[in-house]
Amino acid sequence: MTTRQIVINVPEKVLLAEKADEASFARELRLLAAIKLYELGRLSSGRAAELAGMARVEFLLTLGRYKVFPLAAELRDLENRRA
Fold first, then answer.
1. Rounded Cα distance, 14 and 21, in Å
2. d(Cα 60, Cα 6) in Å, to the nearest integer?
3. Distance of alpha carbon 83 from its chain centroid, rounded?
4. pLDDT of residue 83
5. Segment-wise mean pLDDT, segments of 10 residues, the chain, 83 residues
6. Phi, psi for residue 20 in degrees, rounded to 5
7. Residues 53/38, Cβ–Cβ less than 8 Å
8. By the 8 A CB rule, do 70 and 63 touch?
9. Of 22, 34, 71, 80, which sees the most CB atoms within 10 A?
10. CA nearest 49: which of 65, 33, 64?
11. What's the CA gap between 75 and 79, in Å, rounded?
12. Are 44 and 72 spatial neighbours (Cβ–Cβ below 8 Å)?
């Protein structure tokens, strides 16, 4: 898999407020971005899991911690087919 690096400047005060080191904060940002993009329907669960750096099943199980329904996209597809 080919990857690209994206650099985000984060104020040091944010890291201090989060009590996080750069690596753990970066992992969390990737996960949160993946969850939000999945929730908005912009990424499939598989692609979002790739962005988060985890297996698809693990990603789907993680969604519950963030109050995101794991099969929302699939339900939308079913509803659209009924209409």
1. 10
2. 25
3. 30
4. 67
5. 91 93 95 95 93 96 92 74 76
6. -130, 150
7. no
8. yes
9. 34
10. 33
11. 6
12. no
